[in-house]
Design a protein that fits this description.
Structural class: alpha+beta
Number of helices: 3
Shape: globular
CATH class: Alpha Beta
Helix content: 25-40%
CATH topology: HIT family, subunit A
Domain HIT: 5-113
Motif (Histidine triad motif): 97-101
Distance between the termini: 32 Å
Order of helices and strands: HEEEHEEH
CATH architecture: 2-Layer Sandwich
Pfam families: HIT
GO biological process, one term: nucleotide metabolic process
GO molecular function: catalytic activity
Length: 134
């Protein structure tokens, strides 16, 4: 894609701080650095997001994520890791090229807060499961 910033990074048209690269995948430091070591893992082949990927494309990308995440965690001295992947603008996707965020975690005051709320009383889980089942 001519206007995709991640495609331009993959092509070497825009510089990046690479931490891993092979034939299919590139991992580089996110310029926002939510926490030190915040890394993006992207497929070299363009796809908008996971929802647009084929099964093979997803297998290729996600097969590399554990090893890259372990390396980032180990080399940064992090005590944990958030692995995030956003799809569509409403979910926080701002670059429309599939990418996985590896965010090393150091302590509870390191700049990232993810909070899940309990909304179970709002849903009939059996009805919802039936609606989603395929």
């Amino acid at each position: 894609m001519n206007d995709c910033i991640f495609c331009k990074i993959v092509a070497g048209e825009i510089p990046s701080y690479k931490v891993y690269e092979d034939y299919d995948v590139l991992a580089f430091l996110d310029i926002t650095q939510t926490t030190p070591g915040h890394t993006l893992v992207v497929p070299k082949e363009h796809s908008k997001n996971v929802l647009a990927m084929t099964e093979e494309q997803a297998k290729t990308l996600f097969a590399k994520v554990p090893a890259i995440a372990r390396a980032v965690k180990e080399k940064t001295g992090a005590t944990g890791m958030n692995i995030l992947q956003n799809n569509e603008e409403i979910a926080g996707q701002t670059v429309f090229h599939t990418h996985v965020h590896l965010i090393p975690r150091y302590d509870t005051a390191d700049g990232l807060k993810i909070e899940f709320t309990n909304n179970m009383d709002k849903f009939d889980l059996a009805e919802l499961a039936e609606k989603i089942r395929f």
